[in-house]
Specification:
Length: 129
């Protein structure tokens, strides 16, 4: 089993930055990639970004490219999501997820949540003036 714990959410103004963290514990060797998803009220959970555990490959949703950066610190078993230039429509609950799937590509990322096996409880991000 893999346990995930997100932190770092909060209320910010448009244009502000925020960094989310996700600590991974348990059988961490079972996770070959990590991802961030978000779910706004009344909407489906959507992919935001993903990264292979080696950090060699990253993937982003078009809506966040150039603004968000995903990174991993394997020594700390932590994955981060740096969010810059936040917009009101970035408001959502953000979830960290771990994938046991070994082979990652743009196609893998496009398949979304079905590629992920473990989920955190989520952290709320609200962007409002």
């Amino acid at each position: 089993q893999v346990q995930l714990a997100e932190s770092g959410g909060g209320l910010v103004q448009p244009g502000d930055s925020l960094r989310l963290s996700c600590v991974v514990s348990g059988h961490t060797f079972n996770s070959y990639a990590m991802g961030w998803f978000r779910q706004a009220p009344g909407k489906e959970r959507e992919s935001v970004a993903a990264i292979t555990r080696s950090g060699g490959s990253t993937y982003y949703a078009d809506s966040v490219k150039g603004r968000f950066t995903i990174s991993v610190d394997n020594a700390k078993n932590t994955v981060y999501l740096q969010m810059n230039s936040l917009k009101p429509n970035d408001t959502a609950v953000y979830y960290c997820a771990a994938s046991q799937y070994r082979y990652w590509s743009d196609y893998t990322f496009s398949r979304g949540r079905e590629m992920f096996n473990y989920w955190g409880q989520g952290t709320q991000v609200t962007v409002s003036s």
